[in-house]
Amino acid sequence: KTSSNMLKTETIRQRNLTKSTVANIKAALAQVEKVPRAEDVMHSDALTAEANSMEINRLVVETLSDLDDASTRSARASYIALQAVHQATQNALKLKSIGTLIDQAAK
After folding, report:
1. What is residue 37's predicted lDDT score, i.e. its pLDDT?
2. Average pLDDT of each block of 10 consecutive residues along the chain (107 residues)?
3. Is the pTM of this model over 0.70?
4. Which pLDDT belongs to residue 11?
5. Rounded Cα gap, residues 26 and 32, in angstroms
6. What is the pLDDT of residue 54?
7. Exposed e or buried b per residue across 64-92, where buried means at least 16 C-beta atoms within 10 angstroms of its C-beta
8. Cα–Cα distance list, 90 to 26, 71, 93 (Å)
9. Cα separation values, 76 from 37, 42, 64, 65, 97, Å
10. DSSP letter string, 2-62
């Protein structure tokens, strides 16, 4: 009888150990199954980051192009303003000369 009880106890212990091992294997498999999903998420995040980077680069190029255009227009406006000042100076000198001639003719 004692031998029978020992066998029964050992069987129960082995069954509990098997249940515990099965539970551990299931938990490990659940963790392993998460890896591909985590990789998919990381891949998706990498693609999103790459798309964002490309958009930022596009915006930087566009901004630099706009700055170049604005700089060109600013330089052209400065040149035109300088020409206008020069022309106004020339006109003022002509008017002064005409004024001097009129003063001399009136004397």
Report:
1. 76
2. 78 88 88 77 88 91 89 87 90 92 87
3. no
4. 87
5. 10
6. 93
7. eeeeeeeeeeeeeeeeeeeeeeeeeeeee
8. 95, 28, 5
9. 58, 50, 18, 17, 31
10. HHHHHHHHHHHHHHHHHHHHHHHHHHHHHHHHHHHHHHHHHHHHHHHHHHHHHHHHHHHHH
